[in-house]
Amino acid sequence: MPMVSMRQVLDEAAKGGYGVGAFNVNNMEQIQAIMEAARETKSPAIVQASRGARSYTNDRFLYHLMMAAVELYPEIPIVLHQDHGNSPETCKSAIDMGFTSVMMDGSLMPDGKTPADFEYNVRVTKEVCEMAHERGVTVEGELGTLGGIEDGHGADVDPMSHLTDPDQAVEFVERTGIDALAVAIGTSHGAYKFSKKPTGEVLVMSRIEEIHRKLPNCHMVMHGSSSVPQDLQDIINKYGGQMKQTYGVPVEEIQRGIKNGVRKINVDTDSRMAITGAIRKVFVEHPEHFDPRDYLKPARAAMQAVVKARMLAFGQAGHAGDYEPIPLASFAEYYKQQPVAV
Ligand SMILES: [Zn+2]
Questions:
Q1: What number of other Cβ atoms are within 10 A of residue 341's Cβ?
Q2: Catalytic residue check, 83
Q3: From CA 31, how far away is CA 182, in angstroms rounded?
Q4: Claim: this prediction has a pTM higher than 0.85
Q5: Which of 83, 179, 268, 270 is catalytic?
Q6: 147 has which bridge partners?
Q7: How far is the CA of 224 from the centre of ligand 1 (A)?
């Protein structure tokens, strides 16, 4: 099937009461790991690329790798999503290239670091909605600011100081017309999210419940939601790595979010850690090896295992065959019928 609109995948997830993992990619092995996990679990797949990933792959490699995924996995609905677009121009270039979904992160200025004000956020996000929806492409916006910097994007702020305000969220969704809202609830990008197992004081899941009560039909997105599992930290450190002890977002907290309107869960760090641990192990155990396949194969398998575990935990497993893809042109028609907020 052709690549599908993320709106369709999230609408279906809302109907079915499950969440869908959005996994970041930078190369062929990561795309293969996600697609194999999707096939194994019969899951829809959201593949996302940051600006850093697009420049690393030089865009065209990424595009053609994704075309290969579409060709080789015809039974899987696949979304290609721009993660943290920093400006309308970035989103436009993604749409021109064939992305079926974009995130306009207007919570930060175009430098991807400086927190922006509400009116700026509304203006750029609305602009992207108008441009994207005309072509049936989905838009994710963000309100509130996460901590942590990843791929050069993110604000080095105290994650507790910029949580999403529920009333402002209602206004933001109404004025912009976004399909999905990324919320700030105390998480950060990268591996170093919490210095101990998070409590409700630092990982404010109650905020998601509040927003869901006010916006029951809005798809919420959890960023910075890797679980940073202890076993992956241990493998990395056992084979010469030097990761400091850290704690991520427990899977059961994500499941609580899914019960309260979270439909997309961004995971990147867990994949990175799985890959790095597997490669380190080969290097230590087989210092005589020098064929990249000797370490990239176990690396790919390790990422596939972690992606599979998340797909099962989020509830998306078994849902790949539930629906036929709706063409982007039909979504463009649908958006045209929607009332425009002032
Ligand atoms: Zn993010």
A1: 12
A2: yes
A3: 23
A4: yes
A5: 83
A6: 188
A7: 6
